[in-house]
Design a protein that fits this description.
two-stranded antiparallel ribbon
Length: 308
Amino acid sequence: MTDILDKAPAAVPPEQIKAIPVRHYGRWVAGALVIAVLVLIGIAFSNAKINYSIIPDYLFDQGIVSGAWTTLYISVLAMVLGVALGIVLAVMRLSSNPVTSTVAWFYIWFFRGTPVLVQLLLWYNISLVFPILNLGFYKDEMNQVMTPVLTALLGLGLNEAAYMSEIVRAGIQSVDEGQTEASHALGMTHGQTLRRVILPQAMRVIVPPTGNEYINMLKTSSLAYAVQLPELIKKATDISSTSLAVVEMYFVACIWYLFLTTIFSIVQYYVERRYARGSTRNLPATPLQKVRANLTKMNMLSLSNWRR
């Protein structure tokens, strides 16, 4: 028996598996088509009758800078109004009182269902409905009261409140109901529970779409040119009417919008990262931390190669 086992052939080891990657020809075709389209667009713009050399000259023009500043502060003010009123509307919408919840629902339905430009024009011509503003302690003609700044603030802010109310409502409903029950068991009132327990936890859900809404507000504020607000688009249009550089001034406005949205996108990233600390054990590395880590790896590799 042992002789038979000794004469048995040795087990042949299996051959190593050779993994052959699948060829994705569709990716190469799609990439080539995209590059071809980009090249055609670049050729079209390079051959267009656009004087690109004057764009840097108008980039920091006094009128353009003042228009960008107007765009910035009217967006901030309108967003503050929208957030504050949106929180109130969200609480009203979640209230068990049928009157307040119905009023909040109707507000959201109206302002979400009508264009922002129409709302701005309605506020701009509100004097046709209320010729005189009489508050008892203050009385004046509505044409004098409803300035372009106030028109833009009300039109943009009240419209934004409708969207912010839905964002806040979704954030509040994302918090477990056990948190409310535990707070009430500790003797907290409904208002204290909302301020100290619910809203701080809901911020993780509220902050990301709020940042997106503000970036959208920066661009939506361009509609205020229709009510004669001297914002970025209005200033660019005024300059183009005298210099005849229409497309060039639109490029200048685009550069400023890209700059502002990029700055606030970075701010939004770090705000989101801060509010994610309670739910994420290991926060993702920031762009600066990634750059430092890559530089450290490169220095270590270069040092090891030098020692060799």
